[in-house]
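Each letter names a residue; the fold follows as tokens. Both lines appear below:
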Amino acid sequence: MAKFWFVSAPLFGHLDWGGFLKTALTLQSAGHQVTWISQPAIGAYLVEKGLEFSPIATTGWSWPPPPPPDPKNLTPQQAVFIRYKRALDTWLSEELIPAAVQHLLDLAETNGVPDVLVTDPFLTASAIAAEKMGTKLAVCGWPATTDLDEDHLFAVQRELAEDSRGRIQRLCEQFNVQGENFSQGPTPSIQSPYLHISYFNDYWHQGDPPFLPQTHFVGGRADMPLSPPPQWMEHLPDAPIALITLGSVFTGDLGFFAWAAQAAHRLGWVPVVVIGRNPIAPEDKSQLKAALPPGAFLLNWIDYDHLFPRLKVIVHHGGMGTTHAAILHGVPQVVVPHAADQRGQAKRVSQAKVGLHLTAHEVKNGQLLPAIRAVGTDEKVRQQCQWLAQSFAALGGSAQAGNLLAGLVNETGIGS
């Protein structure tokens, strides 16, 4: 029996990445010792899922970020710089990471060093602590790729890349480690020399930089629901259903929910609007409810495994977990990205021909309805969605991810 630590930021989206939590449960069901480590906010949920949970005061992840300045007072170049800087400050905070590393080292002192520390892709503390403990790091949810060519970086990227290299160097010096779990190129990132697991496939990443040999694609399989359908689904009519969601973070864009629901309603489809776990003000929720068309459903959260087999189309933000679930169930997608890696997911949805990518400008100019109609009624899109779902299923999903992690315990090579 091997000992695994799973470490994540304290956000529900960081439990997913297409199969991160499922992989932990797979390893536990195989008899391995699995402990999930994060901040207390997500602890009850993980215990409910049956995992041992060890809370720490901080994971080094800076959230929520400070409110952005008014874009009206910024030049386009300044706006881009601030967007990149805010992302960097989230995963590479020199103020928070040292305490997070120390929390992990203290846990190892008390409970013993894990055989493998499995991390979400953006926890710097995991990368430093694993090296300091002398244990192997595995990254779930993100492939390891070659670095971008510095000559092709924008000026803002070069400036922030230099900043990030300096931050990593100072953090590594503080803990007397070499930085073996970071890429060494012009745009540094967390990079395990042993194993990166992506819950997609190589076709999905066409056009991306070349992958390093420690990257393994495991796809995923749609799960059969293990519980009875929720009561609200008993009231769903026998009609096409459009799911509209922005995940659990970008819940304040009330106009998006209303516009997408109205577009689906005009097509004769039933809108199911899911506004996320983060609560919104009661007056805002009342305002949104009043803006929805007749027959729309307004929910805080849903069980994907129950609803997705019923969907005609999904309109969403491009979060990795939501995008992945739509692929597994063969559901056409309309993606309106709001931040970070969502832009990459939106691009890949379009190039894989399983949906469309819209900008916020296009949404405001009335393109939601024709986009939803196009992806929801085109038979070629539907066939492509089914083909991609089958391709993902053939790779083994979280079961294969568990095999890779278990096999890592006794391996010493890179990319094995």
Q: What stands out?
A: The chain has two domains: 3-220+395-408, 231-393.
